Protein backbone atom coordinates (compact mmCIF):
# COMPACT_ATOMS: atom_id res chain seq x y z
CA UNK A 1 0.00 0.00 0.00
CA UNK A 2 1.22 3.51 -0.57
CA UNK A 3 2.01 5.43 2.54
CA UNK A 4 -0.34 7.91 4.13
CA UNK A 5 0.77 11.52 4.20
CA UNK A 6 -0.10 13.36 7.39
CA UNK A 7 -0.84 17.08 7.45
CA UNK A 8 -0.18 19.70 10.10
CA UNK A 9 -3.67 19.25 11.54
CA UNK A 10 -3.04 15.51 12.06
CA UNK A 11 0.18 16.17 13.93
CA UNK A 12 -1.56 18.85 15.98
CA UNK A 13 -4.13 16.29 17.18
CA UNK A 14 -1.45 13.76 18.00
CA UNK A 15 0.54 16.35 19.97
CA UNK A 16 -2.51 17.55 21.91
CA UNK A 17 -3.19 13.93 22.88
CA UNK A 18 0.40 13.39 24.05
CA UNK A 19 0.23 16.60 26.05
CA UNK A 20 -2.91 15.43 27.82
CA UNK A 21 -1.67 11.96 28.78
CA UNK A 22 1.55 13.40 30.13
CA UNK A 23 -0.31 16.25 31.80
CA UNK A 24 -2.58 13.82 33.66
CA UNK A 25 0.49 12.05 35.05
CA UNK A 26 2.03 15.37 36.02
CA UNK A 27 -1.06 16.59 37.90
CA UNK A 28 -1.50 13.27 39.68
CA UNK A 29 2.10 12.98 40.86
CA UNK A 30 1.38 14.73 44.15
CA UNK A 31 -1.28 12.19 45.08
CA UNK A 32 1.21 9.35 45.24
CA UNK A 33 2.37 9.21 48.84
CA UNK A 34 2.35 5.51 49.68
CA UNK A 35 2.74 2.22 47.88
CA UNK A 36 -1.02 1.75 48.18
CA UNK A 37 -1.52 4.97 46.18
CA UNK A 38 0.96 3.86 43.56
CA UNK A 39 -0.14 0.25 43.09
CA UNK A 40 -3.80 0.31 44.07
CA UNK A 41 -4.89 3.91 43.43
CA UNK A 42 -5.59 4.12 47.17
CA UNK A 43 -8.72 2.05 46.42
CA UNK A 44 -10.68 5.15 45.52
CA UNK A 45 -12.08 4.76 42.01
CA UNK A 46 -15.80 5.21 41.31
CA UNK A 47 -17.52 2.49 39.26
CA UNK A 48 -17.58 4.29 35.90
CA UNK A 49 -13.86 5.09 35.95
CA UNK A 50 -12.79 1.63 37.11
CA UNK A 51 -15.21 0.06 34.62
CA UNK A 52 -13.99 1.95 31.57
CA UNK A 53 -10.38 1.31 32.60
CA UNK A 54 -11.22 -2.40 33.03
CA UNK A 55 -12.35 -2.42 29.42
CA UNK A 56 -9.65 -0.17 28.05
CA UNK A 57 -6.72 -2.05 29.62
CA UNK A 58 -7.81 -5.06 27.60
CA UNK A 59 -8.30 -2.99 24.45
CA UNK A 60 -4.72 -2.97 23.23
CA UNK A 61 -3.76 -2.27 19.66
CA UNK A 62 -3.54 -6.02 19.09
CA UNK A 63 -7.14 -6.37 20.12
CA UNK A 64 -8.29 -3.62 17.75
CA UNK A 65 -6.13 -4.76 14.83
CA UNK A 66 -6.69 -8.45 15.55
CA UNK A 67 -10.47 -8.27 15.89
CA UNK A 68 -10.76 -6.27 12.68
CA UNK A 69 -8.56 -8.88 10.99
CA UNK A 70 -10.82 -11.67 12.28
CA UNK A 71 -13.85 -9.69 11.14
CA UNK A 72 -12.38 -9.63 7.64
CA UNK A 73 -11.50 -13.33 7.78
CA UNK A 74 -14.50 -14.84 9.57
CA UNK A 75 -17.20 -12.17 9.52
CA UNK A 76 -19.72 -11.66 12.30
CA UNK A 77 -18.74 -14.96 13.97
CA UNK A 78 -15.87 -12.97 15.45
CA UNK A 79 -18.47 -11.47 17.80
CA UNK A 80 -18.33 -14.75 19.73
CA UNK A 81 -15.14 -13.36 21.25
CA UNK A 82 -17.39 -10.73 22.84
CA UNK A 83 -20.86 -12.16 23.34
CA UNK A 84 -19.70 -15.67 24.29
CA UNK A 85 -16.05 -15.17 25.10
CA UNK A 86 -16.26 -12.10 27.34
CA UNK A 87 -19.64 -10.96 28.67
CA UNK A 88 -20.66 -14.09 30.65
CA UNK A 89 -17.24 -14.22 32.31
CA UNK A 90 -17.37 -10.51 33.11
CA UNK A 91 -20.72 -10.99 34.78
CA UNK A 92 -19.43 -14.00 36.71
CA UNK A 93 -16.35 -12.24 38.03
CA UNK A 94 -18.38 -9.23 39.13
CA UNK A 95 -21.21 -11.08 40.81
CA UNK A 96 -19.46 -14.16 42.22
CA UNK A 97 -15.71 -13.66 42.43
CA UNK A 98 -15.14 -10.01 43.23
CA UNK A 99 -16.35 -10.44 46.83
CA UNK A 100 -13.30 -12.65 47.47
CA UNK A 101 -10.77 -10.61 45.53
CA UNK A 102 -11.87 -7.30 46.99
CA UNK A 103 -13.01 -8.55 50.37
CA UNK A 104 -9.83 -10.50 51.13
CA UNK A 105 -7.82 -7.27 51.02
CA UNK A 106 -5.32 -9.13 48.82
CA UNK A 107 -3.34 -6.60 46.83
CA UNK A 108 -3.03 -8.75 43.74
CA UNK A 109 -4.36 -11.96 42.22
CA UNK A 110 -1.20 -13.96 43.11
CA UNK A 111 -1.52 -12.68 46.67
CA UNK A 112 -5.05 -14.07 46.79
CA UNK A 113 -3.58 -17.45 45.85
CA UNK A 114 -1.16 -17.25 48.78
CA UNK A 115 -3.92 -16.37 51.23
CA UNK A 116 -6.17 -19.09 49.88
CA UNK A 117 -3.62 -21.82 49.13
CA UNK A 118 0.09 -21.49 49.75
CA UNK A 119 3.36 -19.86 48.82
CA UNK A 120 4.28 -22.12 45.93
CA UNK A 121 0.98 -21.63 44.11
CA UNK A 122 1.41 -17.87 44.44
CA UNK A 123 5.03 -18.02 43.30
CA UNK A 124 4.15 -20.01 40.19
CA UNK A 125 1.37 -17.63 39.24
CA UNK A 126 3.33 -14.45 40.07
CA UNK A 127 6.42 -15.39 38.09
CA UNK A 128 4.64 -16.63 34.98
CA UNK A 129 2.31 -13.64 35.07
CA UNK A 130 5.13 -11.11 35.43
CA UNK A 131 7.01 -12.62 32.50
CA UNK A 132 3.90 -12.75 30.39
CA UNK A 133 2.99 -9.07 30.92
CA UNK A 134 6.44 -7.85 29.91
CA UNK A 135 6.44 -10.11 26.91
CA UNK A 136 3.01 -9.13 25.68
CA UNK A 137 3.63 -5.45 26.07
CA UNK A 138 6.83 -5.92 24.08
CA UNK A 139 5.05 -7.82 21.35
CA UNK A 140 2.34 -5.23 21.02
CA UNK A 141 4.96 -2.48 20.92
CA UNK A 142 6.58 -4.36 18.08
CA UNK A 143 3.26 -4.75 16.27
CA UNK A 144 2.45 -1.06 16.53
CA UNK A 145 5.89 0.13 15.45
CA UNK A 146 5.79 -2.22 12.43
CA UNK A 147 2.36 -0.94 11.50
CA UNK A 148 3.39 2.71 11.75
CA UNK A 149 6.46 1.94 9.67
CA UNK A 150 4.34 0.34 6.98
CA UNK A 151 1.49 2.82 6.96
CA UNK A 152 3.19 6.12 7.73
CA UNK A 153 6.79 5.38 6.97
CA UNK A 154 7.74 6.24 10.55
CA UNK A 155 11.04 4.98 11.80
CA UNK A 156 10.65 1.75 13.79
CA UNK A 157 13.04 2.81 16.57
CA UNK A 158 11.44 6.22 16.96
CA UNK A 159 7.99 4.66 17.39
CA UNK A 160 9.23 2.18 19.98
CA UNK A 161 11.16 4.72 22.01
CA UNK A 162 8.52 7.45 21.82
CA UNK A 163 5.65 5.24 22.93
CA UNK A 164 7.76 3.60 25.65
CA UNK A 165 8.88 6.93 27.07
CA UNK A 166 5.38 8.41 27.17
CA UNK A 167 3.89 5.40 28.94
CA UNK A 168 6.87 5.32 31.29
CA UNK A 169 6.51 8.96 32.26
CA UNK A 170 2.82 8.91 33.04
CA UNK A 171 2.94 5.69 35.06
CA UNK A 172 6.12 6.72 36.87
CA UNK A 173 4.52 9.99 37.94
CA UNK A 174 1.03 8.93 38.86
CA UNK A 175 1.12 5.14 39.28
CA UNK A 176 -2.04 3.13 38.79
CA UNK A 177 -4.30 6.20 39.10
CA UNK A 178 -2.54 7.80 36.17
CA UNK A 179 -2.77 4.59 34.13
CA UNK A 180 -6.48 4.27 34.93
CA UNK A 181 -7.32 7.92 34.19
CA UNK A 182 -5.49 7.70 30.91
CA UNK A 183 -7.24 4.45 30.05
CA UNK A 184 -10.60 6.19 30.42
CA UNK A 185 -9.43 9.09 28.26
CA UNK A 186 -8.15 6.56 25.73
CA UNK A 187 -11.44 4.70 25.81
CA UNK A 188 -13.36 7.77 24.67
CA UNK A 189 -10.72 8.53 22.09
CA UNK A 190 -10.88 5.02 20.64
CA UNK A 191 -14.67 5.16 20.40
CA UNK A 192 -14.87 8.68 18.97
CA UNK A 193 -11.85 8.11 16.71
CA UNK A 194 -13.10 4.93 15.04
CA UNK A 195 -16.81 5.71 14.93
CA UNK A 196 -16.65 8.05 11.89
CA UNK A 197 -14.80 5.30 10.04
CA UNK A 198 -17.56 2.79 10.72
CA UNK A 199 -20.31 5.25 9.83
CA UNK A 200 -18.68 6.23 6.53
CA UNK A 201 -17.91 2.62 5.67
CA UNK A 202 -21.46 1.49 6.37
CA UNK A 203 -22.92 4.34 4.33
CA UNK A 204 -20.61 3.47 1.48
CA UNK A 205 -21.51 -0.23 1.30
CA UNK A 206 -25.22 0.53 1.61
CA UNK A 207 -25.85 -0.19 5.28
CA UNK A 208 -26.10 -3.60 6.90
CA UNK A 209 -28.19 -4.98 4.05
CA UNK A 210 -25.67 -3.77 1.48
CA UNK A 211 -22.86 -5.29 3.50
CA UNK A 212 -24.72 -8.59 3.82
CA UNK A 213 -25.23 -8.74 0.06
CA UNK A 214 -21.56 -8.05 -0.63
CA UNK A 215 -20.38 -10.57 1.95
CA UNK A 216 -22.61 -13.26 0.49
CA UNK A 217 -20.50 -13.15 -2.65
CA UNK A 218 -17.31 -13.30 -0.56
CA UNK A 219 -18.56 -16.26 1.38
CA UNK A 220 -19.86 -18.28 -1.54
CA UNK A 221 -16.62 -17.48 -3.36
CA UNK A 222 -14.74 -19.15 -0.50
CA UNK A 223 -16.95 -22.22 -0.72
CA UNK A 224 -19.32 -21.55 2.21
CA UNK A 225 -23.03 -20.93 2.17
CA UNK A 226 -24.11 -17.36 1.50
CA UNK A 227 -24.81 -16.34 5.09
CA UNK A 228 -21.66 -17.80 6.64
CA UNK A 229 -20.09 -14.40 7.27
CA UNK A 230 -23.18 -12.57 8.48
CA UNK A 231 -24.66 -15.10 10.91
CA UNK A 232 -22.98 -15.87 14.20
CA UNK A 233 -24.56 -19.23 15.13
CA UNK A 234 -26.33 -20.67 12.09
CA UNK A 235 -23.23 -22.24 10.61
CA UNK A 236 -21.65 -23.57 13.80
CA UNK A 237 -23.23 -27.01 13.44
CA UNK A 238 -20.14 -28.46 11.88
CA UNK A 239 -16.62 -27.12 11.63
CA UNK A 240 -16.48 -27.39 7.86
CA UNK A 241 -19.50 -25.11 7.37
CA UNK A 242 -17.86 -21.93 8.62
CA UNK A 243 -14.62 -20.08 7.89
CA UNK A 244 -13.44 -20.36 11.52
CA UNK A 245 -13.41 -24.14 11.31
CA UNK A 246 -14.99 -24.50 14.73
CA UNK A 247 -18.08 -26.37 15.88
CA UNK A 248 -20.46 -25.09 18.55
CA UNK A 249 -19.26 -27.28 21.44
CA UNK A 250 -15.62 -26.30 21.05
CA UNK A 251 -16.74 -22.69 20.76
CA UNK A 252 -18.95 -22.64 23.83
CA UNK A 253 -16.76 -24.77 26.09
CA UNK A 254 -13.30 -23.80 24.83
CA UNK A 255 -13.78 -20.11 24.19
CA UNK A 256 -16.92 -19.32 26.16
CA UNK A 257 -16.01 -21.22 29.29
CA UNK A 258 -12.34 -22.10 29.69
CA UNK A 259 -10.47 -19.36 27.85
CA UNK A 260 -12.88 -16.57 28.60
CA UNK A 261 -13.32 -17.27 32.30
CA UNK A 262 -9.60 -17.98 32.58
CA UNK A 263 -8.83 -14.52 31.25
CA UNK A 264 -11.54 -12.25 32.63
CA UNK A 265 -11.78 -13.90 36.04
CA UNK A 266 -8.12 -14.48 36.89
CA UNK A 267 -5.95 -12.11 34.89
CA UNK A 268 -4.58 -9.46 37.22
CA UNK A 269 -4.29 -7.00 34.34
CA UNK A 270 -8.05 -6.47 34.37
CA UNK A 271 -8.83 -7.50 37.97
CA UNK A 272 -6.42 -4.81 39.23
CA UNK A 273 -8.76 -2.14 37.84
CA UNK A 274 -11.72 -3.53 39.76
CA UNK A 275 -9.62 -3.94 42.92
CA UNK A 276 -8.84 -0.21 42.74
CA UNK A 277 -12.55 0.60 43.14
CA UNK A 278 -13.73 2.67 46.08
CA UNK A 279 -15.99 0.07 47.69
CA UNK A 280 -17.06 -3.55 47.47
CA UNK A 281 -20.18 -2.61 45.52
CA UNK A 282 -18.16 -0.45 43.14
CA UNK A 283 -15.65 -3.27 42.64
CA UNK A 284 -18.41 -5.75 41.83
CA UNK A 285 -20.09 -3.32 39.47
CA UNK A 286 -16.82 -2.57 37.63
CA UNK A 287 -16.84 -5.56 35.23
CA UNK A 288 -20.63 -5.32 34.87
CA UNK A 289 -20.42 -1.69 33.90
CA UNK A 290 -17.59 -2.54 31.49
CA UNK A 291 -19.75 -5.26 29.91
CA UNK A 292 -22.21 -2.73 28.49
CA UNK A 293 -19.78 -0.97 26.11
CA UNK A 294 -18.03 -4.32 25.55
CA UNK A 295 -21.27 -5.66 24.15
CA UNK A 296 -21.42 -3.10 21.35
CA UNK A 297 -17.70 -3.07 20.64
CA UNK A 298 -18.05 -5.51 17.74
CA UNK A 299 -19.64 -2.62 15.83
CA UNK A 300 -16.45 -0.64 16.32
CA UNK A 301 -13.76 -3.26 15.73
CA UNK A 302 -15.30 -6.19 13.82
CA UNK A 303 -17.51 -4.24 11.44
CA UNK A 304 -14.59 -2.29 9.90
CA UNK A 305 -12.93 -5.62 9.10
CA UNK A 306 -16.09 -6.87 7.42
CA UNK A 307 -16.48 -3.63 5.47
CA UNK A 308 -12.85 -3.79 4.38
CA UNK A 309 -13.13 -7.32 3.02
CA UNK A 310 -16.42 -6.53 1.28
CA UNK A 311 -14.82 -3.54 -0.48
CA UNK A 312 -11.72 -5.59 -1.18
CA UNK A 313 -13.78 -8.04 -3.21
CA UNK A 314 -16.27 -5.65 -4.79
CA UNK A 315 -13.96 -2.82 -5.81
CA UNK A 316 -10.84 -4.79 -6.41
CA UNK A 317 -7.89 -5.29 -4.09
CA UNK A 318 -8.28 -2.72 -1.36
CA UNK A 319 -6.21 -4.72 1.11
CA UNK A 320 -2.60 -5.44 0.11
CA UNK A 321 -1.79 -9.09 -0.50
CA UNK A 322 0.64 -10.71 1.93
CA UNK A 323 3.44 -13.14 1.19
CA UNK A 324 1.05 -16.10 1.61
CA UNK A 325 -1.08 -14.89 -1.29
CA UNK A 326 -3.98 -13.94 0.98
CA UNK A 327 -5.03 -10.39 1.86
CA UNK A 328 -3.03 -9.04 4.80
CA UNK A 329 -5.99 -8.94 7.17
CA UNK A 330 -4.10 -7.03 9.85
CA UNK A 331 -4.13 -4.00 7.59
CA UNK A 332 -7.94 -3.81 7.48
CA UNK A 333 -8.20 -0.83 9.86
CA UNK A 334 -5.24 1.17 8.54
CA UNK A 335 -6.45 0.64 4.98
CA UNK A 336 -9.91 1.90 5.82
CA UNK A 337 -8.48 4.88 7.68
CA UNK A 338 -6.53 5.85 4.59
CA UNK A 339 -9.47 5.09 2.31
CA UNK A 340 -12.16 7.19 3.99
CA UNK A 341 -10.60 9.75 6.28
CA UNK A 342 -9.20 13.01 4.99
CA UNK A 343 -6.53 14.93 6.83
CA UNK A 344 -8.00 15.97 10.17
CA UNK A 345 -10.11 12.94 11.02
CA UNK A 346 -7.22 10.83 9.81
CA UNK A 347 -5.11 12.29 12.59
CA UNK A 348 -7.86 11.51 15.06
CA UNK A 349 -8.11 7.89 13.84
CA UNK A 350 -4.37 7.34 14.07
CA UNK A 351 -4.31 8.94 17.50
CA UNK A 352 -7.03 6.49 18.52
CA UNK A 353 -4.86 3.64 17.29
CA UNK A 354 -1.92 4.97 19.33
CA UNK A 355 -4.23 5.35 22.32
CA UNK A 356 -5.37 1.75 22.13
CA UNK A 357 -1.80 0.65 22.02
CA UNK A 358 -0.80 2.77 25.00
CA UNK A 359 -3.72 1.68 27.16
CA UNK A 360 -2.84 -1.96 26.53
CA UNK A 361 0.80 -1.38 27.30
CA UNK A 362 0.13 0.66 30.46
CA UNK A 363 -2.19 -2.11 31.66
CA UNK A 364 0.63 -4.61 31.34
CA UNK A 365 3.18 -2.36 32.97
CA UNK A 366 1.07 -1.48 36.01
CA UNK A 367 0.17 -5.13 36.53
CA UNK A 368 3.84 -6.05 36.20
CA UNK A 369 5.17 -3.50 38.67
CA UNK A 370 2.60 -4.50 41.29
CA UNK A 371 3.16 -8.25 41.01
CA UNK A 372 6.91 -7.78 40.89
CA UNK A 373 7.01 -5.51 43.96
CA UNK A 374 4.43 -7.20 46.18
CA UNK A 375 4.55 -10.83 45.10
CA UNK A 376 8.17 -11.32 44.15
CA UNK A 377 10.35 -8.59 45.66
CA UNK A 378 8.56 -8.15 48.98
CA UNK A 379 7.94 -11.88 49.35
CA UNK A 380 11.17 -13.47 48.28
CA UNK A 381 13.88 -10.83 47.94
CA UNK A 382 13.55 -8.08 50.57
CA UNK A 383 10.69 -8.59 53.00
CA UNK A 384 10.00 -6.33 55.98
CA UNK A 385 11.13 -3.01 54.53
CA UNK A 386 9.40 0.36 54.98
CA UNK A 387 6.54 1.39 52.70
CA UNK A 388 8.76 4.12 51.20
CA UNK A 389 11.17 1.40 50.17
CA UNK A 390 8.48 -0.50 48.26
CA UNK A 391 7.18 2.69 46.69
CA UNK A 392 10.69 3.34 45.39
CA UNK A 393 10.82 -0.22 44.12
CA UNK A 394 7.54 0.42 42.31
CA UNK A 395 9.14 3.31 40.45
CA UNK A 396 12.18 1.20 39.64
CA UNK A 397 10.00 -1.72 38.52
CA UNK A 398 8.13 0.61 36.16
CA UNK A 399 11.38 1.65 34.49
CA UNK A 400 12.68 -1.92 34.38
CA UNK A 401 9.35 -3.27 33.11
CA UNK A 402 9.30 -0.80 30.23
CA UNK A 403 12.93 -1.50 29.49
CA UNK A 404 12.24 -5.25 29.34
CA UNK A 405 9.25 -4.60 27.07
CA UNK A 406 11.47 -2.67 24.68
CA UNK A 407 13.93 -5.55 24.77
CA UNK A 408 11.11 -7.98 24.02
CA UNK A 409 10.01 -5.78 21.12
CA UNK A 410 13.48 -5.95 19.63
CA UNK A 411 13.79 -9.65 20.36
CA UNK A 412 10.60 -10.13 18.36
CA UNK A 413 12.19 -8.46 15.32
CA UNK A 414 15.10 -10.90 15.53
CA UNK A 415 13.69 -14.13 16.91
CA UNK A 416 10.07 -14.29 15.88
CA UNK A 417 9.96 -18.02 16.57
CA UNK A 418 11.12 -17.76 20.16
CA UNK A 419 8.43 -15.19 20.86
CA UNK A 420 5.76 -17.42 19.32
CA UNK A 421 7.04 -20.29 21.41
CA UNK A 422 7.00 -18.28 24.64
CA UNK A 423 3.45 -17.17 23.91
CA UNK A 424 2.49 -20.76 23.38
CA UNK A 425 4.02 -21.76 26.71
CA UNK A 426 2.10 -19.01 28.48
CA UNK A 427 -1.07 -20.15 26.79
CA UNK A 428 -0.45 -23.59 28.34
CA UNK A 429 0.05 -22.02 31.77
CA UNK A 430 -3.10 -19.93 31.47
CA UNK A 431 -5.48 -22.52 30.14
CA UNK A 432 -6.11 -24.42 33.40
CA UNK A 433 -6.06 -21.37 35.76
CA UNK A 434 -9.79 -20.92 36.07
CA UNK A 435 -10.21 -24.44 37.49
CA UNK A 436 -7.88 -23.52 40.35
CA UNK A 437 -9.75 -20.32 41.18
CA UNK A 438 -13.15 -21.93 40.87
CA UNK A 439 -12.24 -24.70 43.28
CA UNK A 440 -10.39 -22.29 45.55
CA UNK A 441 -13.35 -19.97 45.89
CA UNK A 442 -16.17 -22.47 46.02
CA UNK A 443 -14.76 -25.63 47.60
CA UNK A 444 -13.14 -25.20 50.98
CA UNK A 445 -11.64 -28.67 50.95
CA UNK A 446 -9.25 -27.82 48.08
CA UNK A 447 -5.67 -27.66 49.37
CA UNK A 448 -2.42 -25.93 48.46
CA UNK A 449 -0.84 -29.11 47.13
CA UNK A 450 -4.00 -29.80 45.14
CA UNK A 451 -3.95 -26.33 43.58
CA UNK A 452 -0.25 -26.30 42.75
CA UNK A 453 0.04 -29.79 41.31
CA UNK A 454 -3.35 -29.44 39.63
CA UNK A 455 -2.08 -26.35 37.83
CA UNK A 456 1.10 -28.11 36.85
CA UNK A 457 -0.80 -31.12 35.53
CA UNK A 458 -3.21 -28.86 33.64
CA UNK A 459 -0.30 -27.00 32.04
CA UNK A 460 1.40 -30.26 31.05
CA UNK A 461 -1.88 -31.60 29.70
CA UNK A 462 -2.21 -28.50 27.52
CA UNK A 463 1.31 -29.01 26.20
CA UNK A 464 0.70 -32.71 25.60
CA UNK A 465 -2.58 -32.08 23.76
CA UNK A 466 -0.94 -29.47 21.59
CA UNK A 467 2.01 -31.76 20.95
CA UNK A 468 -0.19 -34.63 19.81
CA UNK A 469 -2.54 -32.74 17.51
CA UNK A 470 -2.29 -30.54 14.44
CA UNK A 471 -4.56 -28.12 12.63
CA UNK A 472 -5.49 -29.09 9.08
CA UNK A 473 -2.53 -28.53 6.79
CA UNK A 474 -0.23 -27.57 9.68
CA UNK A 475 3.39 -28.65 9.88
CA UNK A 476 4.70 -30.33 13.03
CA UNK A 477 6.47 -27.76 15.22
CA UNK A 478 5.07 -24.58 16.70
CA UNK A 479 1.60 -25.43 15.38
CA UNK A 480 1.55 -28.67 17.34
CA UNK A 481 2.43 -32.28 16.67
CA UNK A 482 5.88 -31.87 18.24
CA UNK A 483 5.61 -35.06 20.26
CA UNK A 484 6.17 -37.22 17.23
CA UNK A 485 2.78 -38.77 16.65
CA UNK A 486 -0.35 -36.91 15.63
CA UNK A 487 -3.44 -38.51 17.13
CA UNK A 488 -5.96 -35.99 15.85
CA UNK A 489 -6.16 -33.31 13.18
CA UNK A 490 -8.40 -30.32 13.85
CA UNK A 491 -10.16 -28.44 11.06
CA UNK A 492 -8.49 -25.17 12.12
CA UNK A 493 -5.92 -23.69 14.46
CA UNK A 494 -8.67 -22.03 16.43
CA UNK A 495 -10.46 -25.33 17.01
CA UNK A 496 -7.17 -26.84 18.18
CA UNK A 497 -6.63 -23.97 20.65
CA UNK A 498 -10.15 -24.27 22.05
CA UNK A 499 -9.71 -28.00 22.59
CA UNK A 500 -6.28 -27.57 24.16
CA UNK A 501 -7.96 -25.27 26.67
CA UNK A 502 -10.78 -27.72 27.33
CA UNK A 503 -8.32 -30.58 27.96
CA UNK A 504 -6.12 -28.44 30.22
CA UNK A 505 -9.05 -27.24 32.27
CA UNK A 506 -10.56 -30.67 32.72
CA UNK A 507 -7.23 -32.21 33.76
CA UNK A 508 -6.50 -29.41 36.23
CA UNK A 509 -10.02 -29.58 37.67
CA UNK A 510 -9.92 -33.36 38.19
CA UNK A 511 -6.33 -33.45 39.43
CA UNK A 512 -6.93 -30.63 41.93
CA UNK A 513 -9.94 -32.47 43.39
CA UNK A 514 -8.12 -35.80 43.62
CA UNK A 515 -4.93 -34.40 45.12
CA UNK A 516 -6.90 -32.23 47.56
CA UNK A 517 -8.77 -35.28 48.82
CA UNK A 518 -5.48 -37.13 49.29
CA UNK A 519 -3.70 -34.28 51.12
CA UNK A 520 -4.38 -32.61 54.46
CA UNK A 521 -5.91 -29.17 54.72
CA UNK A 522 -3.36 -26.64 55.94
CA UNK A 523 -5.72 -23.71 56.34
CA UNK A 524 -8.34 -23.60 59.04
CA UNK A 525 -11.89 -22.36 58.49
CA UNK A 526 -10.98 -19.10 60.27
CA UNK A 527 -8.07 -18.50 57.93
CA UNK A 528 -10.31 -19.06 54.94
CA UNK A 529 -13.02 -16.62 55.99
CA UNK A 530 -13.44 -14.03 53.26
CA UNK A 531 -11.63 -16.26 50.77
CA UNK A 532 -14.07 -19.11 50.24
CA UNK A 533 -17.75 -18.82 49.41
CA UNK A 534 -19.22 -21.04 52.13
CA UNK A 535 -17.10 -19.40 54.86
CA UNK A 536 -17.84 -15.82 53.94
CA UNK A 537 -20.84 -13.93 55.25
CA UNK A 538 -23.30 -13.02 52.48
CA UNK A 539 -23.07 -9.42 51.38
CA UNK A 540 -26.19 -7.55 52.42
CA UNK A 541 -27.08 -4.74 50.11
CA UNK A 542 -29.46 -2.38 51.76
CA UNK A 543 -30.34 1.04 50.49
CA UNK A 544 -29.37 0.27 46.90
CA UNK A 545 -31.87 0.74 44.10
CA UNK A 546 -32.27 -2.39 41.96
CA UNK A 547 -30.17 -1.00 39.10
CA UNK A 548 -27.29 -0.42 41.52
CA UNK A 549 -27.18 -4.03 42.64
CA UNK A 550 -24.54 -6.20 40.98
CA UNK A 551 -26.78 -9.27 40.61
CA UNK A 552 -29.59 -7.30 38.95
CA UNK A 553 -27.10 -5.56 36.65
CA UNK A 554 -25.67 -8.96 35.77
CA UNK A 555 -29.06 -10.27 34.72
CA UNK A 556 -29.71 -7.19 32.58
CA UNK A 557 -26.31 -7.51 30.89
CA UNK A 558 -26.84 -11.21 30.14
CA UNK A 559 -30.32 -10.52 28.81
CA UNK A 560 -29.07 -7.86 26.41
CA UNK A 561 -26.27 -10.16 25.23
CA UNK A 562 -28.80 -12.88 24.53
CA UNK A 563 -30.81 -10.44 22.42
CA UNK A 564 -27.71 -9.55 20.40
CA UNK A 565 -26.99 -13.23 19.81
CA UNK A 566 -30.53 -13.76 18.57
CA UNK A 567 -30.47 -10.73 16.27
CA UNK A 568 -27.31 -11.93 14.55
CA UNK A 569 -28.17 -15.64 14.84
CA UNK B 1 -7.50 17.72 46.13
CA UNK B 2 -8.37 15.04 43.60
CA UNK B 3 -8.38 15.64 39.90
CA UNK B 4 -11.84 15.34 38.37
CA UNK B 5 -11.23 13.14 35.34
CA UNK B 6 -14.10 14.75 33.44
CA UNK B 7 -12.06 17.96 33.27
CA UNK B 8 -9.14 16.72 31.13
CA UNK B 9 -11.48 14.58 29.00
CA UNK B 10 -13.76 17.56 28.40
CA UNK B 11 -10.86 19.88 27.65
CA UNK B 12 -9.15 17.52 25.25
CA UNK B 13 -12.24 16.80 23.20
CA UNK B 14 -13.23 20.47 23.13
CA UNK B 15 -9.79 21.27 21.72
CA UNK B 16 -10.10 18.45 19.18
CA UNK B 17 -13.54 19.77 18.26
CA UNK B 18 -12.29 23.32 17.76
CA UNK B 19 -9.31 22.13 15.71
CA UNK B 20 -11.38 19.89 13.44
CA UNK B 21 -14.29 22.30 12.99
CA UNK B 22 -11.87 25.11 12.20
CA UNK B 23 -10.00 22.93 9.73
CA UNK B 24 -13.29 21.81 8.21
CA UNK B 25 -14.25 25.44 7.55
CA UNK B 26 -11.01 26.43 5.85
CA UNK B 27 -9.97 23.21 4.11
CA UNK B 28 -10.30 22.59 0.40
CA UNK B 29 -13.57 20.82 -0.52
CA UNK B 30 -11.67 18.48 -2.81
CA UNK B 31 -10.22 16.48 0.06
CA UNK B 32 -13.71 15.29 1.02
CA UNK B 33 -14.14 13.30 -2.17
CA UNK B 34 -12.79 10.28 -0.29
CA UNK B 35 -15.22 10.74 2.60
CA UNK B 36 -18.23 10.44 0.28
CA UNK B 37 -18.36 14.23 -0.24
CA UNK B 38 -19.20 14.87 3.38
CA UNK B 39 -17.20 17.50 5.23
CA UNK B 40 -16.47 15.04 8.02
CA UNK B 41 -14.02 17.32 9.77
CA UNK B 42 -16.68 19.97 10.25
CA UNK B 43 -19.44 17.61 11.37
CA UNK B 44 -17.39 15.29 13.52
CA UNK B 45 -15.59 18.31 14.98
CA UNK B 46 -18.96 19.60 16.16
CA UNK B 47 -19.78 16.20 17.69
CA UNK B 48 -16.47 16.13 19.55
CA UNK B 49 -16.96 19.69 20.73
CA UNK B 50 -20.43 18.89 22.03
CA UNK B 51 -19.08 15.85 23.87
CA UNK B 52 -16.22 17.86 25.33
CA UNK B 53 -18.52 20.64 26.52
CA UNK B 54 -20.93 18.18 28.15
CA UNK B 55 -18.00 16.64 30.05
CA UNK B 56 -16.82 20.09 31.12
CA UNK B 57 -20.33 20.94 32.23
CA UNK B 58 -20.53 17.77 34.33
CA UNK B 59 -17.15 18.54 35.90
CA UNK B 60 -18.32 22.04 36.76
CA UNK B 61 -21.52 20.71 38.26
CA UNK B 62 -19.51 18.22 40.30
CA UNK B 63 -17.35 21.00 41.70
CA UNK B 64 -20.29 23.13 42.74
CA UNK B 65 -21.99 20.33 44.62
CA UNK B 66 -19.23 18.37 46.32
CA UNK B 67 -20.72 14.98 47.17
Gyration radius from CA atoms of chain A, angstroms: 23 Å
Overall morphology of chain A: globular
* Average pLDDT taken over every residue of chain B: 91
Shape of chain B: rod-shaped
Which CATH C-level class of the largest domain in chain A is it?
A: Mainly Alpha
Largest sheet of chain B: none
- Residue ranges of chain B: pLDDT <50 for 5 or more in a row? none
Defining traits:
heterodimer; A: 569 residues; mainly alpha; globular; B: 67 residues; 0% strand
Short description:
The complex is a heterodimer of chains A (569) and B (67). Chain A has 569 residues and is mainly alpha-helical.
Describe this structure in words.
The complex is a heterodimer of chains A (569) and B (67). With 569 residues, chain A is mainly alpha-helical. Chain A has helices at residues 8-28, 35-40, 47-58, 61-74, 80-83, 87-103, 109-116, 119-152, 156-205, 207-221, 248-264, 268-275, 280-314, 332-340, 345-381, 387-414, 416-430, 433-442, 448-468, 493-518, 550-567, and strands at residues 469-471, 488-490. Chain A has a two-stranded parallel sheet. In chain A, helix 8 packs across helix 19, helix 9 packs across helix 10 (207-221) and helix 16 (387-414) packs across helix 17. The radius of gyration of chain A is 23 Å and the shape is globular. Chain B is an all-alpha fold and 67 residues long. Chain B is 69% helix and 0% strand. Chain B has helices at 6-26, 40-64. The longest helix of chain B is centred in the C-terminal third of the chain and has 25 residues, at 40-64. Chain A binds chain B through residues 9, 12-13, 16-17, 20, 23-24, 27-28, 31, 44, 49, 181, 184-185, 188, 192, 196, 200, 203-204, 339-345, 348, and chain B through 2-3, 5, 8-9, 11-13, 15-16, 19-20, 23-24, 27, 31-32, 34-36, 38, 40-41, 44-45, 47-48, 51.
